[in-house]
Amino acid sequence: MSYVEQSLGANEAVHYNARYPTGRYVAAWILLIAGVMGAVLFAGFGHTVFAGLSALAGLICFAWILYRPWTSEIAVTNLRLIYKRGFLQRRTNDLQLRAIEEVRLKQDLWGRLLNFGHVEFYGTGVADLKLPAINDPVAFQKAIQEALGADKDETQNPGQLIMPSSQAS
Known about the structure:
By secondary structure, the protein is an alpha+beta fold. It is elongated and about 70 Å long. The strands form two sheets. Strands 1-2-3-4 form a four-stranded antiparallel sheet. Strands 5, 6, 7 and 8 form a four-stranded antiparallel sheet that branches. Strand 2 (73-77) and strand 3 form a beta hairpin. Helices cover 46% and strands 24% of the residues. The chain folds into two domains: 3-20 and 73-156, Roll (PH-domain like); 24-68.
């Protein structure tokens, strides 16, 4: 069970789970395949030590690149933003949505082309929170805005179902 699922409150639901950029996974797989191919080539020429080192290097690069995605979680619930990282030592940042004053999106040219970027949060009485590069940061930002809007609707009309004006009679 993930940390986000473990930490959900009674009336809390996950709106969005962020993912690391796809390029990170592609790079890891390319390095792993290159290491295995190098091992096969070295083994073909009878260099078993170099074959083992090549395979080990590919595996280490693969694990090193994917360590952060494997050990991190970034999620938006209807009440808060959760950022957890770490495997043996857990570090978390839980930011209440009502405390968020400003959300900044940072995307360079490659981020725009490949759809990844950094999202930063600034709020009242809390430390600033800067997330690592994530896939589709605009959708993440939209999920936060929607969760903020739903939270405001609930505080203005507690317990009432909010219906669009076209359906209200």
